[in-house]
């Protein structure tokens, strides 16, 4: 994607993050600015398997905040894809009821961008 990745201070991963979108990068910058420890896509949750145990569907949240034990998923996509993501989140919550996850929609990201003067353009 060609994003200019800064050196993060609060990032807790072992290899540099490879962000899928500008929104993910900007959110990571805000977390880092405030010294909030975070990881990028540290875990994939299996949502569905076939009869042989092979993974049919899985979900990897964008960020994890270890001090809050909270996963964060960001979406700035069109509504038809958001509906699919919401379905995956429902499945995740059913299969892993103890996992805390928060989904930030495009409107949430736009408010965040306004407040922090971020560039979330794709």
Helix content: 25-40%
The top-level CATH class is Alpha Beta
The CATH superfamily name is VSR Endonuclease
The biggest beta sheet reads: 4 strands, mixed
Give the SSE string: HEEEEEHEH
The CATH topology annotation reads as Endonuclease, Chain A
CATH architecture label name: 3-Layer(aba) Sandwich
Shape: globular
CA-atom Rg in angstroms: 15 Å
What is the mean predicted local confidence, pLDDT? 87
Total number of domains: 1
Count of helical segments?
3
The counted number of beta strands is 6
**Physical arrangement of strands within the biggest beta sheet:** 1-4-5-6
Low-confidence stretches: none
Derived from helix and strand composition plus strand pairing, the structural class reads alpha+beta
Describe the structure.
This protein is of the alpha+beta class and 122 residues long. It is built from 3 helices and 6 strands, in the order αβββββαβα. The strands form 2 sheets. A 4-stranded mixed β-sheet has the order 1-4-5-6. It has a two-stranded antiparallel sheet with strand order 2-3. The model has no long low-confidence stretch (mean pLDDT 87). The protein is globular and about 45 Å long. The protein has helices spanning 22-33, 79-95, 106-116; strands spanning 39-40, 45-49, 55-59, 63-65, 70-74, 100-104. A hairpin with a 5-residue loop joins strand 2 (45-49) and strand 3 (55-59). It starts with 21 loop residues before the first helix and ends in a 6-residue tail after the last helix. It has a single domain (24-115), classed as 3-Layer(aba) Sandwich (Endonuclease, Chain A), CATH 3.40.960.
